[in-house]
Design goal:
By secondary structure, the chain is mainly α. The longest helix is centred in the first third of the chain and has 30 residues, at 17-46. Strands 1-2 form a two-stranded parallel ribbon. The protein has helices spanning 2-13, 17-46, 62-74, 76-81, 94-103; strands spanning 55-58, 83-86.
Length: 104
């Protein structure tokens, strides 16, 4: 019986779904902004401005695609000078081949 009372009091105090969504969006946006700022600082520090002599190997993983998308958005000049090497692991989905063609 004690557990039922505790759960009821917790449920009555919980944040309403709409409020939760807004606060979660703010937290996740802030966390994402920090990560993107760190990514941008690392790119500016470690890669040449023209992207020459830089090779990025991708196996079309989600993280690889995020890297290319961030480079395209924030550093298009560097990305255009880089060499992208695609590794086909022979385990790619058909939709992945479509994305690969679009990136080419």
């Amino acid at each position: 019986m004690f557990a039922v009372r505790s759960c009821a009091s917790i449920l009555s105090r919980r944040v309403q779904p709409k409020q939760f969504q807004v606060s979660w969006r703010l937290l996740s946006t802030t966390a994402l902004d920090v990560k993107v700022a760190s990514f941008k600082a690392d790119i500016e520090k470690h890669l040449p401005a023209d992207g020459k002599r830089v090779v990025f190997a991708t196996a079309w993983l989600a993280t690889d695609n995020v890297f290319v998308a961030l480079m395209h958005e924030h550093f298009p000049k560097i990305l255009s000078g880089m060499h992208l090497v695609a590794v086909d692991t022979m385990h790619l989905f058909d939709t992945t081949h479509v994305v690969a063609k679009q990136v080419e």
